[in-house]
Amino acid sequence: MSETxxxxxxxxxxxxxxxxxxxxxxxDQPLFLLLIVGSFLALSMIFAKSGPMVGWHPLGLLQWSxxxxxxxxxxxxxxxxxxSGRESRRERSAKIRLLTYISITGLLFIAPNMIAVMxxxxxxxxxxxxxxxxxxxxxxxxxxxxxxxRFKMLRSIGVLAGVVGGVxxxxxxxGVSAEASFxxxxxxxxxxxxxxxNIYRTLKWPDGATAIELALGMMVTAFLALVVFNAAMGIPVxxxxxxxxxxxxxxxxxxxxxxxxxxxxxxxxxxxxxxxxQIGSVAAVAGLGLGYLVFSEIPNxxxxxxxxxxxxxxxxxxxxxxxx
Length: 324
Fold this sequence. Notes:
It contains 14 helices and no strands. By secondary structure, it is mainly α. Helix 2 runs antiparallel to helix 5 (about 125-130) and helix 5 runs antiparallel to helix 13.
């Protein structure tokens, strides 16, 4: 091999190694993971509202997006040679604990997502995205109640601010149709499910399990639960017509789910449940922006007040981390 060719090969290998090292560092950075997961969460809400416009029932789109996202995530991680925690689960009891874990996390995951995709066309994508801002304060409240964290005054003020934000958000649904008002109230259950899931995943994380395999297990469990629910309720799981728009939306949503939940458990692993809960705050801001750009949804005074209250809660929760 000539010196020029050798230099070119070495340069290419060095560049590839640098890129791999950069990706590895980003995979360990909570802030990077937070911004990506939160933004894709908001994007999935936009896709949910777009579904009926191209012939999809929201839950039909969600069903195939979940399993498609799991399949894409599995393929990509296998291609990249991701490690598995299988060697640490030779005992039957360890396998049972893993199955129990992914079953519960799957149900805690699918419940708020089902509510979100059903509510988005009724109350607006930005309204649904805002409800994802509240798990931060609820997660901290749950953590204090069960002794996972100590009570701290600044953080408790943050929790109170979050509750105020919830009241303002609920008030933002006033003056709309009865159906929209109903879904406005139901949507407020989303942060309760999410906060419970945040605490459970940390407390019961199976020994030796990797973030990717837990994400895959959760998504498959959620898909199976959704299949049963859709079949029982007679919900159509294919679009009215297989147009290019319907197919494109499904493909885009599959990609969004693969990215979002491929990084979701990693964020929990490196940052913990309270930090993870901030994805809702990122989603709230991104959702309002996307809602305005895509659907021309203009936030009213109550939504703006909710943003301010939630932001205040986030600041106090963060400031109170190391103080009494």
